[in-house]
Structure formats: C-alpha cells, structure tokens
Design goal:
The protein is of the alpha/beta class and 392 residues long. The chain has two domains: 313 residues, Rossmann fold, CATH 3.40.50.300; 74 residues, Immunoglobulin-like (Sandwich). It is built from twelve helices and 15 strands. The chain has an eight-stranded mixed sheet with strand order 3-4-2-5-1-6-7-8, with helices on both faces. Strands 9-10-15-14 form a four-stranded antiparallel sheet. Helix 1 packs across helix 12, helix 4 crosses helix 9 and helix 7 crosses helix 9. The structure holds adenosine-5'-triphosphate and magnesium ion.
Length: 392
C-alpha cells in the first residue's frame, strides 16, 4: 500500500487536534502503522490523550505513535550540518547558534516539516497525520519550502561550478560573501530536501489536506480563503469537516436562532464545497479529552469507509498548448478577479493575492512569449501566453 500524509488545517480552536486525533486512532485500529504528529508550537496532543510527551515519538496504543516536534531539538539532532551550513552564510561576527535563535521567521516550522519528510522516507509508518497550528501559520509553513528554494536559486545559483564562476559578480551585486564550498554543499543538500518536501506535499497520491470548519459566518469565510490559498500553492484539499453541529432536538428557545444560523452556513458549505467529501461532527456536551472522547468522534463522524482514500479534487497547475500559444491554468476557487495581481518577468510569472504571492517558473519555450489575456472563470484562472511579435 502507498504511504500517506494527512494535514489538518483550519482557524484557531475549530477542532483540528481533536479531529486529527480521531483519524489517527481510527487508522491504528484498522491496523495501519500510524503517527500523529504536531507541528503546532503550542502542542496539545499530550493534553488530549492525557499523558506527558517527551521529545521523541511515544507509543500510545498499538500501531499509534504520538509525536510533538520540538524544532530546536530536531535542528540539533537531525539537521546539524545544514543548520551549520546556513550559519556560515551569516557575516563574520554575527554568527550564532541558529538552532537557538533562528535565522528567519518560520525557520523552526520549516525544520518540523523537513522532519516529517524524513519520517515519511523512513518507512516506519503507513500513515502520518499532521496536526497543524491555526491557518495563517500553516499557510506560511506550506508555502515556505517553495519560497525558500526560490530565494536559494536566486542568491546561490545551485551547483558548485556556478558559484565559482559567479562569485566575484555576486559579491558586487548582492554585497554578500558567497559561502565556501563546504557550506555550499550543505546548502545544496537543504535545497534538495526543500524541493523533495514540496513535491511530497503537493503530490496528490501522497498528501491530503483536510479543512476543519464551523457552521458560522466568520469561520466559513476564512475556510473559503484558506481553500483558495491552498489552491494557489497547488495543494490538494480532499475533505471538509464541519465541527460542533448542535443536535436538532434541544427544546430550548435559546438555541433556536443558533440552529437556524448553523443550518444556513451548513447549506452554504455544502454548496460552496460541492466537490469535496464533507463530514459532520456533533457538538458534544463536554471537551474532547481522553481516548473515549476521541473514539466517540470516530463512531459519530468518521464512518465512511473511504475516509482515508486520496481524492484528486483539483489538478495541479498546467500549461496547455493552443492556437495562440500556451495557456496556463491555475485553480483559484472563490478568488475575485479584482484582487489578483499578475506580473511577468523573463523566467517566471508572479501571481499575487492579498499577502500571498506565488512565483511560477516559465518553461524555456515560453521565454519569448508574453501574457496576452487573463480570465477567471468558475474558479479557474486562465493565463494566455502569445508569441512576442504578435504583441506589436
Ligand atoms: N465537537 C466538539 N464538541 C465539544 N467540544 C469540542 C468539539 N471539538 C472540539 N472541542 C473542544 O474545543 C477545544 C478546541 O478543540 P481543538 O483543540 O481540537 O481545536 P484546534 O483547532 O486544534 O485548536 P488550536 O487552533 O488551538 O490548535 C478543545 O477544548 C476541544 O476539546
Ligand atoms: Mg490544535
């Protein structure tokens, strides 16, 4: 069987940890070697299962390990040489312990993700279930490998010969010292790992992104944005969980309005996310704590047999040849045309929405083509490239 990764994301407090845990328990009971791993710095897997966790994975039941990643520990133990390599990029005199201080925001989380890549490659688990920090952080986390490898390509043309040739030039332009050969090796290693990580997370056969939401206006809005950004970065979302659904028979007028609100937003979610499998979780009369509570979610909400199946809901972006030249298709569900900014350079096209930006490299054949038209239709962005001469 193919090994799989499931990433649970959503706004703060919507139930990511509880629902991820329920999947993990269900998976282990099905006989799959499962790991439930948290990249949220405010870990709470231990709280949920009512045990104290250390820095290494912990076997909580047959076939299920819990693991709260401590990035500093992981950087020191698993990626020592890469961290040292990065450290050597800092100007003399400013070098410090990167594992402790971090070189750029998000570095901790990045190493947590790289650790997940290693766990995947190690073959000890059939399913890795990732419990994430709230949306904003998760988004930055997921776009990070791509962003960082983009910078690395620009700053240090990867490959040692390129570095040797470009060194004096680079010094002049970037006013930085290029790293020495040893550091370069480490950087190259990191670059490859980042590349592999991206491929792993974007591969429809390996990774599922699952969204957790509530039937309330603000959370629904945020879930749609999140879905759009996931698509902008080419991740495949293949499941939506509506948590905290009130029981219909409450016989308390206080809840009448709430029932109506929930009903309205539930309908909206089903309509907006018609392409996705949707799962509903009841609102319980107590917190989700301890294995009984987790089992309860499994029994109430995770009953569909194919819940772990990978589904390709949206394809990756692609180029298609047509009579005018080439067409780039990119899924952007719920995006508004007015908020999309787009610009082209010789080697890439940049798509900007809100605070997020995606650089898509253009294939060599498109170097002499320019964007001639753009349209957004049914949640798909169509970017037409035409041969430059035709522009005149
Ligand atoms: N269906 C539910 N019924 C009752 N309580 C719930 C339900 N789902 C979650 N909770 C409770 O709500 C709180 C938040 O849930 P959880 O920790 O799973 O959310 P989260 O999205 O992981 O939060 P964070 O963003 O802080 O990591 C917890 O106290 C949990 O026990
Ligand atoms: Mg959580």
């Amino acid at each position: 069987m193919k090994k799989r990764i499931y990433v649970f994301t959503g706004k703060g407090g919507v139930g990511k940890t509880s629902i991820a845990a329920a999947h993990a328990v269900k998976s282990a009971k099905e006989g799959y070697r499962t790991m439930l791993v948290s990249t949220d710095m405010a870990h709470n897997l231990g709280d949920l299962f009512e045990i104290k966790l250390g820095k290494e994975p912990y076997r909580v039941m047959e076939k299920l390990d819990l693991y709260e990643i401590d990035p500093e520990y992981v950087m020191q133990n698993d990626f020592q040489d890469m961290v040292t390599g990065l450290g050597r990029l800092l100007p003399q005199g400013e070098q410090m312990d990167l594992a402790e201080h971090g070189m750029f925001p998000g570095m901790d989380e990045l190493f947590a993700l790289l650790k997940i890549n290693e766990l995947y490659l190690d073959d000890d688990y059939d399913r890795i279930i990732v419990d994430c920090a709230p949306t904003g952080e998760t988004l930055s986390l997921l776009k990070f490998p791509e962003l960082l490898s983009w910078y690395m390509e620009k700053l240090f043309p990867i490959g040692k010969t390129a570095v040797r040739i470009l060194s004096p030039l680079a010094k002049q332009f970037y006013k930085i010292e290029l790293p020495d050969r040893a550091a370069m090796n480490d950087i190259e290693k990191l670059y490859r790992k980042l590349y592999d990580l991206q491929e792993l997370l974007k591969n429809r056969e390996t990774t599922s992104i699952r969204l957790v939401t509530l039937p309330e206006k603000m959370v629904v809005e945020e879930t749609k944005r999140n879905y759009m950004y996931m698509n902008l970065y080419n991740f495949n979302v293949d499941g939506l969980y509506i948590n905290r659904i009130l029981p219909q028979e409450l016989n308390n007028p206080f809840f009448d309005e709430w029932l109506e609100i929930q009903d309205r937003y539930k309908k909206q979610l089903y309509e907006s996310f018609a392409a996705l499998p949707v799962y509903e979780i009841p609102w319980y009369d107590e917190e989700v704590r301890g294995s009984k509570a987790v089992d309860r979610i499994c029994q109430d909400a995770l009953t569909k047999e194919d819940i772990f199946e990978a589904k390709e809901i949206t394809g990756r972006e692609c180029f298609e040849q047509n009579t005018e030249g080439y067409l780039l298709l990119l899924n952007l569900p719920f995006a508004e045309k007015s908020e999309i900014d787009l610009y082209q350079s010789e080697s890439e096209i940049v798509i900007k929405i809100g605070n997020f930006k995606r650089n898509i490299s253009l294939p060599n054949v498109l170097r002499t083509f320019l964007v001639s038209s753009v349209k957004l239709e049914n949640g798909v962005l169509f970017i037409q490239f035409s041969k430059q001469e035709e522009q005149k």
